[in-house]
Design brief:
The complex is a heterodimer of chains A (about 120) and B (about 110). Chain A is an all-beta fold and about 120 residues long. Chain A has strands spanning about 5, 10-15, 20, 25, 35-40, 45-50, 60, 65-70, 75-80, 90-95, 105, 110-115. In chain A, the strands form 3 sheets. In chain A, strands 2, 5, 6, 10, 11 and 12 form a 6-stranded mixed beta sheet that branches. Chain A has a 4-stranded antiparallel beta sheet with strand order 3-9-8-7, with no helix packed on it. Chain A has a two-stranded antiparallel ribbon with strand order 1-4. In chain A, a hairpin with a 2-residue loop joins strand 7 (about 60) and strand 8 (about 65-70). Chain B is about 0% helix and about 50% strand. Chain B contains no helices and 11 strands. Chain B is mainly β and about 110 residues long. Classes of the chains: A mainly beta (about 120), B mainly beta (about 110).
Chain lengths: ~120, ~110
């Protein structure tokens, strides 16, 4: 069975702090995709990244970085120098690779509050 | 269109009413997904279309839920005899080649009284 666990329910930081959101996943598939989304208070899901299970390179996009470690089944997300606008719920998700196995399996989300 | 659109954005129904929620995917997108997000929870998969074919409906919670995409573009999610537990945000997503991910609509918030 596929499962995504985001152990941190809520995180509160002060602006400019770095913060890491944890994501651990379970799957029996050898190939799969991992995702991160942001859901601000407005409610709309904002796609942040999709990572193929073949590609274990870490990725950096501005203040955002992702650490994919297949050995520990983790796909953690770090925000450097956090800002108030980063306040949102962040979801990690997993999908299969082929055919009709492309539905997203979601974690419960981590609510991040960045305080001024 | 520029993105995935959904209508209505908000729907209030009395228990027992039927509702229909519409999703307009990005033009040309082959794949379309419906998800249900209860308050304070992550989204849960409902169903998946590739063109007009419904390839996976394993997430539909009961036979009161029905989805269609007859011409491979617009999709409608219908809920019959709504119950209070159906109150949630219903999200639609589309993608060009079948990979899930980038394009979600704003959702329809359904409240069943």
């Amino acid at each position: 069975a596929q499962k995504v666990t985001q152990a941190q329910t809520e995180i509160s930081v002060v602006e400019k702090e770095d913060v890491t959101l944890d994501c651990v996943y379970e799957t029996r598939d050898t190939t799969y995709y991992l995702f991160w989304y942001k859901q601000p208070p407005s409610g709309e899901l904002v796609f942040l990244i999709r990572r193929n299970s073949f590609d274990e390179q870490n990725e950096i996009s501005g203040r955002y970085s992702w650490n994919f470690q297949k050995s520990t089944s983790s796909f953690n997300f770090t925000i450097t120098a956090s800002q108030v606008v980063d306040s949102a719920v962040y979801f990690c998700a997993l999908s299969g690779y082929a055919g009709n196995n492309r539905k997203l399996i979601w974690g419960l989300g981590t609510s991040l509050a960045v305080n001024p | 269109g520029a993105g995935v659109s959904q209508s209505p954005r908000y729907k209030v129904a009395k228990r027992g009413q039927d509702v229909a929620l519409r999703c307009d995917p990005i033009s040309g997108h082959v794949s379309l997904f419906w998800y249900q997000q209860a308050l304070g929870q992550g989204p849960e998969f409902l169903t998946y279309f590739q063109n007009e074919a419904q390839l996976d409906k394993s997430g539909l919670p009961s036979d009161r839920f029905f989805a269609e995409r007859p011409e491979g573009s617009v999709s409608t999610l219908k809920i019959q005899r709504t119950q209070q537990e159906d109150s949630a945000v219903y999200l639609c997503a589309s993608s060009q080649g079948g990979l899930a991910g980038e394009h979600f609509g704003p959702g329809t918030r359904l409240t069943v009284l």
